[in-house]
Amino acid sequence: MLPIIDRLLVSWKKLSDGKNLLTMCDAIRAVELNADVYYATRECVLEHLAMNGFPLKESSLLTDKWLLNGDFLMEEFSDKFNFIVGNPPYVRQELIPDYLLLRYRKKYHTMYDRSDLYIPFIENSLKLLADDGRLGFICADRWMKNRYGRSLRSYVSEYFNLDIYVDMVGRDAFLKDVSAYPAVVVFSRNTTGITRVARCPEIENDSLKSLASELVDNNADKNGETCSMVIRDLTHDDQPWLIETAENLNLINKIKNKFYSLEKAGCKVGIGVATGADKIFVIDYASLKIEMDRKIPLLTTKDILTGEIDWLGKGVINPFDDTEHFSLVNLDDFPLLKNYLENHKELLLKRHCAKNADNNWYRTIDRITPALTKKPKLLIPDIKGHANVVYDPGKFYPHHNLYYILSDEWDLIALRAVLLSDLVRMFIKTYTTKMRGGYLRFQAQYLRRICIPKWDNVEENIRQELFAASLNNDIAACNAATNKLYGLSDDEIESLAKEEW
User: Fold this and answer.
1) Rounded to two decimals, what is the model's pTM?
2) Average pLDDT of the segment spanning 334-345
């Protein structure tokens, strides 16, 4: 606020000779929901204006015009704005009260799927831009690639342009740690289709001033010393925005055009069970005294830390029957299970999935399919620095932090070598955003974008190389066999080798 006020005062003194106070009243609107922060900011602004020679009456008039204590998403503004800046809140929708979430969803069409609260903040700000306006946010960039950002990507692609993107991965952009790295983004209504990209700038005054000069340089095709590249036509409908090096994008597009997505190549991607009450449903398998066919050996991320299965003995309670409808079992048919669950009934009833469903109070959030236990599968933890792909021959059920891959067509042990390769990691890195510590998210929505040939089209010698590399946990051999599988050129292999993980 204070630097904005200082710039406004300079312009006001220059253009109105410092006489007409009213010309400044509509120059700023700042919205704050938290009352304590609002009043602290108000006192700060009053003090700042006093230091600039304004009497209390005039300072109060300006401050009360400029500052609003309310919900930005529900405020009504009569004017459009030339400049909008902010750091929108990161709040998962599960933490938003139901009545408020309903109002937000009704008003903002970009609140798609499980979108975070910053999504409608971006939509509302874009709507408030004047024709020549610019919006600058420092904000998580997950929406540019993941599922819940689809509607916002489509909206931006149709009406706006992403002028500037500054990747802040590995940089302390805030005074406190955050789990997801932010990015600085600047939008406008221009139609140039040009985006200037900078990566990981040094957080120092001189470096940032130099970077700012480069980013607003009108010579659009010029790559500056700090600016890593210029991208044209980055935004396309609701598809993920791939802000990567030209070499990586060319290779990704080549593979996408030549091969098949994971599921079209005969693989199925899924996620393990979420119970809603792990302390009750996830237990020590051996010691839990319930009927044997009501408990299933469970694998969690802790069981595969070494890259191989080292089962710690947990199991999951299965309250569903084995019919095609997977209905809940009748507890009267399983007295030991009934006794165990009724001892925990009070806690189970507090779960969201059990509310208003008296007869379903003992269900898990996800249905359990016992047949999955016996199927050979690959297991992949959600968040990892490098893919930790583990082969289960058909002994365990996966927990909810594990994604699994099944296939009746591909040899899963050979597929494991492909998934451990640098090429597949480049795929994941391209489509996901990094978490703190440089970790990538190996979620189903990203795994499904991996492209592979069909198993029937893989030459026998390559099959054997993939199989051997996987069994030996030899990453170099996995890379070599995968490079052959995709027919990579020497230049493409060299480019992969230079990639910073």
Assistant:
1) 0.72
2) 95
